[in-house]
């Protein structure tokens, strides 16, 4: 469990590293790790965060962004792996995807199509819905059951470190919940925004 907790925290940390704000509204972070043939905690391959608002691409959820980032890293001719596209596709079978919230059906399907060895999430879709997040209410478990015809199998592990991932999704629709560090709630809009230097 300590290994799982380490990488779930790393998925959370991706938000601070890849987001343009200390309080990104869609605080969905992902880390992809190789636990196969490695000693200790494993080998980080790539990170990803939800980039809808930065790019205008509605499909660029944290998991999709991470899969794209991993593909770029695995196939980079100057990088450490230098895999062909076919070998990169096959490499996902050795990797574990950690995401701080349960994947929507689009991302859960992408995880299954990629053939990840494992998929580990923190906050559940039910928790997101209870806290005001609009969701397509199809659980990852349902997607995995419906994908049994695929040649690969992916181990699904849910609820890892939910006590630490849940707070990333509690402030967006609840004006009484405190904003993340480095942010304050705007009196005009009621939304959390980054504190400017002149406000410190």
From TrEMBL:
Residues 3-136 form the CMP/dCMP-type deaminase domain. GO terms for molecular function: tRNA-specific adenosine-34 deaminase activity. It holds the Pfam family dCMP_cyt_deam_1. Gene3D superfamilies: Cytidine Deaminase, domain 2 (3.40.140.10). InterPro entries: CMP_dCMP_dom, Cytidine_deaminase-like. One of its GO terms (biological process) is tRNA wobble adenosine to inosine editing. This is Cytidine deaminase-like protein. It comes from Aspergillus avenaceus.
